[in-house]
Amino acid sequence: MIIKNIESRVRLATFIAGGSLVASLLISMIVSFFAYRQVVSARQSIYIMDSGNVPMRASQTDVQMNRAAEYRSHIGRFHSLFFSLTPDDKFIEYQMKQAMYLIDESGALQYNNLKEKGFFNSILSSSAVLTIHTDSIVLDLPTRYFRFYGTQKIDRRSSTITRSLVTEGYLSDLEIRSENNPHAVLITKWKTLENKDLQNVQKNTL
């Protein structure tokens, strides 16, 4: 009888010890899980000070959540730099330099072709002002293919020409953002599909 009591007490003690160990492990895992979530949540929030030294919370978001908008902004910025020009050789040079930060060698190839054809000299000689308006940007995220639809206006002393512009290309992500390429995107395989006159309005030069 005494031996049986001792055995039952040993089994009870073993059961209690094992149960305590399992419970401790479960509690540790649950606490670690919630602590990890708390740390991740804290890392996604920063605080900035306003003019009155009052802390204001700012939340961090996943880059991919806003990537499509960044792609469209990058495409629009490049086309604005490349196709919005004034009759100023220094300004044209600056615009082209900034545009080349956003595109691969396909952009330099088109720039050189236009330069060889005297396109930029014609802007200077005719005092033309070129502006581009983005109509729409079609973007396929899985393949990172885009097609740009825009309307370009060429305002000369003698006439105002409105042209349709359609280009296409692909997008490649860069690892590092910079001042010259804030979205860390590079346009590749870029080419012009359409660039034709829609309207040519003559001005009264008298």
TrEMBL record:
Transmembrane segments: 12-36
Listed name of the protein: Conjugative transposon TraK protein
Top-rank lineage group of the source organism: Bacteria
Keyword Membrane among record annotations: yes
Organism in which the protein naturally occurs: Sphingobacterium paludis
Keywords for the protein's UniProt record, in alphabetical order: Membrane, Transmembrane, Transmembrane helix
